[in-house]
Specification:
With 316 residues, this protein is of the alpha/beta class. The chain has a domain at 4-203: TIM Barrel (Alpha-Beta Barrel). It is built from 14 helices and 11 strands.
Length: 316
């Protein structure tokens, strides 16, 4: 298949692995890229020199295109951008802030830039900033999310109608069927996070991976909307957050409760009681841990199968 996204990144399949904190290191990124998709290193949980190490190891593990996801609100952003340029990274996905500051800098170094947005108005701003594409991430997605709670099925056509640059769909996508639905709405690729958490190559703790594949319908919820909205798997820490929000706790109380290192504690260290467990609603459909290459292959084959079935439908 060839479209604007596959040409933009030089990839075989329009399947992109999300750059998730504490989960998306060089092993996962290189495995997805080697399978024909686009792997992303999640820099948000990395010190600058750790990011450099992951970039170098990823380059040694694949000769295919890969990129780096950079949350713009995280510390060390200047150092991250400098390392990305020094190491010759060709693709950067930005998220969690305004693309206006860094897009021109990255593009001046020949880097393809994509920005993650939760709404059409933000997509327009990304296009105006010079981004080459946008990821439209719906309410179903794991991790940090939009306050508007716009679902993917509503968001994708809204964003496609608002911009001329290619749109990548994200949020609640873990299968070829969901990928086909996103394409029907106007997307030219999908970005997938939760499904790639449940792979051997993901750097998430085994206990967290098991929690993901055991999750059921309704086991995640968007919370912390007073601070930075985040979708979490329900656990004792989540219950503490809910109780605090229900009694209208102040921002200071919520910040103190969140503290530092909650995401690392849960997703990377495997503390399922006290950690922050960021994952998407689609975890309810993920039931096994399998290699990233198998995930890419299954999604693509199902996408092609559904496409053939639709084309075979005889309309009266």
């Amino acid at each position: 298949m060839e479209n604007r996204i596959t040409r933009l990144f030089g990839i075989q399949y329009p399947i992109i692995q999300a750059g998730m904190v504490w989960t998306a290191g060089w092993r996962l990124a290189s495995a997805v890229s080697n399978a024909g998709g686009l792997g992303l290193i999640g820099s948000g949980s990395m010190y600058p020199e750790v990011l450099r190490e992951h970039i170098r190891k990823c380059r040694a593990a694949t000769d295919k295109p890969f990129g780096v996801n950079v949350p713009l609100l995280y510390p060390d952003i200047d150092q991250h951008m400098r390392i990305i340029v020094e190491e010759g990274v060709r693709i950067v996905f930005t998220s969690g802030g305004s693309p206006a500051k860094w897009t021109s800098f990255l593009k001046s170094h020949g880097i393809t830039v994509v920005h993650v947005v939760p709404g059409a108005k933000y997509a327009v701003k990304a296009q105006q900033a010079g981004c080459d594409a946008v990821v439209a991430e719906g309410f179903e997605a794991g991790g940090h999310n939009g306050r508007e709670e716009t679902t993917t099925i509503c968001l994708i056509p809204l964003v496609c109608a608002a911009v001329q640059i290619p749109v990548i769909a994200a949020g609640g996508i873990a299968s070829g069927k969901a990928m086909m639905a996103a394409f029907a709405l106007g997307a030219e690729a999908v970005q997938i996070g939760t499904r790639f958490v449940a792979t051997p190559e993901a750097s998430a703790h085994p206990a967290f991976k098991q929690a993901v594949i055991q999750a059921g319908e309704g086991d995640t919820m968007l919370t912390l909307k007073k601070l930075v909205p985040v979708r979490l798997l329900k656990n004792p820490f989540f219950q503490q957050v809910q109780e605090a929000e229900n009694r209208c706790a102040s921002l200071e109380e919520l910040k103190a409760l969140l503290g530092k290192g909650r995401a690392k504690k849960g997703m990377f260290e495997g503390d399922l009681e006290n950690g922050e467990l960021e994952i998407g609603q689609v975890s309810a459909l993920v039931r096994e841990i399998k290699p990233a290459a198998d995930v890419v292959k299954e999604i693509w084959e199902e996408f092609c199968q559904i496409h053939q079935q639709i084309c075979a439908i005889q309309l009266e």
